[in-house]
From TrEMBL:
GO terms for cellular component: plasma membrane. The lineage of its organism: Bacteria, Pseudomonadati, Pseudomonadota, Gammaproteobacteria, Vibrionales. This is Diguanylate cyclase DosC. It comes from the Bacteria. GO terms for molecular function: diguanylate cyclase activity; heme binding; oxygen binding.
Amino acid sequence: MKGVITRHLDLIVDDFYTHQTRSPDVETLIGDAGTLQRLMSALRQYIADLFTKEINLDYVEHRLRIGLVHKRIGVDPKMYLSSVNYLKAKLISTIHDHLEDPEYAQMLSDILDRLIDFDVSYVFDTYIKSMMNEIEVEKNKSFQYVNDLESIVQERTKSLEKMARLDPLTNLYNKRAFEEFTSKLFSEAQQQNDPVAIVYIDVNDFKLFNDQFGHEEGDSVLIIVSDCLRGASRNVDLCFRVGGDEFVVVMPGCTKESAVKNYIPRVTESLATMRSEVSISVGVAQSGPKNYLSCQDTLARADKDMYLNKPRHRAPETEQPLKCVALKK
């Protein structure tokens, strides 16, 4: 049988590729004449190995490489199987045409059929493993994409939540954040038997700044006051803008006495340095540790205390509005 195949090897290879290149898809995959010659040479070697090469580990690895190469160059399994079946039919017909004993020819054909099927099983094993690897890679990419997308969404959600809690002008917490944060803070203070002080701040004669110098100047005053409040605060203190010219500072672990003696002087000194013509009225109230009030009750007391102090800083009706120079931030 080896002699029969060897004598007709070139004819078999030529016929195989003549048949293959009739397909536009195959012709596109082959590309050029140089590639075609290399493929024809490889096919000659493959056919020769079918009848001469010992089936061992090297043989199996070579078949696996065949599958890998065909997968890489884009030959789909259906196209590969069709080509192998055509080659197998050509080899079997050659055996039957040139062997006189039909029973012997059929026996050899059956052996060849099983051998080629054996080869195909290894080639397809490579196809399947390669496709599974690709699926795994794509699955991992999908998981990574989903994780990245979730991280982006989480970051953007956090950013939006933070923006929703901040006053856009002063970058202090807003009234919504005050309502969200303080109830929990007061509850924790009571559990830990700690005092909480609330400082209520109002800018004196703020309407004069807006009326005489415009809203831009009024905004400048609000920014300066907020910077002073923030700069004088501790890391644990929370600063809020709760109204047009009204601010609140919540000070956990702080008494009214400490806020009056320490915090308020720091604020007023800082404000005098930055804008001496701007003054504030301040009220302070305390909750705990002997008598715990709700946040709203403590805030109401601080507000009342602020208004008790307010008249001392209000300008007489006949007094001219304060003259101030706009300070841009």
